[in-house]
């Protein structure tokens, strides 16, 4: 150590010496930050969620980098008071120039504090749905189900309605079904409830909900609400829709398609239609 | 008198196919030199049909892609063991019951057991190597408690019997004696009971399988319901032989919210 110190003393006060010192400071600083990250990850954050781990990690990296930057400035002989004063003025200038970035950072801080979602959650932002990979100060990154990588700026996330699909352990799948007006409403209700109760992916409790929702344009509209474990969404949806169709078909219950009835001014009499025979259609003028 | 022989160890030679028939489960197995193959099939047997074990011919073996292969050199003995399910169980009684303030009631519930297949000839519970477990009757999943902090359970609709003699004999069910005390000043109306079956042992009586007795103490809807499984065998039917231990150790006064407060999930 003495040798190194003397070696430094022998070197004239030049840029070179400062350069070496700054280099060593940088290396030591980065090493220290990495060691701090490793130690904290292995101890205090061992049982923390991925979200909290990322948060603490980002804080350590940002604070460490700022301290390192200030040490290097001090070594370069920059007056820190003057620098901080100048930094204020520069900051305003930069602030004007980088409003979006600053807005993203501030939004990121709000998101980290508010915790509307965590890494691993499935979220819906606008028309984008995906699994959160990281939450950073500037943006969050999601992976969509068709394996696309999407970066969403924090400002956008903060200003948009975000749906956290997997926040709670159970969810309800609502399916709208319409049946023809001629069908027995009570029978349809019982059938739908039975289909939901016997589905292998549906939860028996909370009980499925069957609601007569509306007298629609083409049929009576029902709402079937079935609770399920959040991981079973795809399995349940496929199973339930298939079983509804099969069961209603088997029971002879009509699922109506949109249709209109034409009347000639009287509400009770339909438009008269005459079936034209094949011969007549082929030769409308006779002969 | 119920025949418990279905739970006896059986010898399955190399290259032999066999099946157990319990409840609605037909469990096919085939043994090779270093492998055990298992295939559970539900629905073939009627619930309540006669349980049995039989060595089968190779030609009877169901062709299926769902056979599971377990690499294990042990054999040729296999021991089936009745165990409790691996999650709590919500029981919906067959009728609405109201327990008046200060009243106590005892009921018996017949719970379907699970089939645990151990490899090895064993009379001491858990001494064999565990291969796999299957419910003898498939049970629906259900959620107990509020949608944010509740827990995943199984669900059965069952009859609450005031006398255990009324319960039909079954070698694939265990009878759970349940003491319910209403120490609140309000009527206790319950249409769901959440049994923490992971704390229950299974004992063999002279005619039935039994679980520990469970005491439920209700002190009001705003307070936690106390649920305590007894640490010993029930003093009924000569139930003294421990068949299988609980999945979790019984804690003293295990606090659980046992009775569902209704109308949590109605409405939107």
Report on the structure:
The complex is a heterodimer of chains A (287) and B (268). In chain A, 48% of the residues lie in helices and 18% in strands. Chain A is of the alpha+beta class and 287 residues long. Chain A has three domains: 2-97, no CATH class; 116-164, Roll (SH3 type barrels), CATH 2.30.30.60; 170-250, Alpha-Beta Plaits. In chain A, helix 2 runs antiparallel to helix 3 and helix 7 runs antiparallel to helix 8. Chain A is elongated and about 115 Å long. Chain B folds into two domains: 5-81, no CATH class; 84-113 and 139-255, no CATH class. In chain B, the strands form five sheets. In chain B, strands 10, 15, 18, 19, 20, 21, 22 and 23 form an eight-stranded mixed sheet that branches. In chain B, strands 5-2-3-4-6 form a five-stranded antiparallel sheet, with no helix packed on it. Chain B is elongated. Chain B contains no helices and 23 strands. Chain B has strands at residues 10-11, 17-22, 25-31, 35-42, 52-56, 68-71, 77-83, 89-93, 97-99, 104-112, 114-119, 129-135, 140-144, 151-158, 173-182, 188-190, 193-195, 202-204, 209-211, 214-218, 226-229, 241-244, 254-255. The chains are: A alpha+beta (287), B mainly beta (268). The A-B interface holds A 168-170, 197, 200, 202-207, 227, 229 and B 90, 140-144, 147-148, 150, 152-153, 155, 192, 260, 264-265.
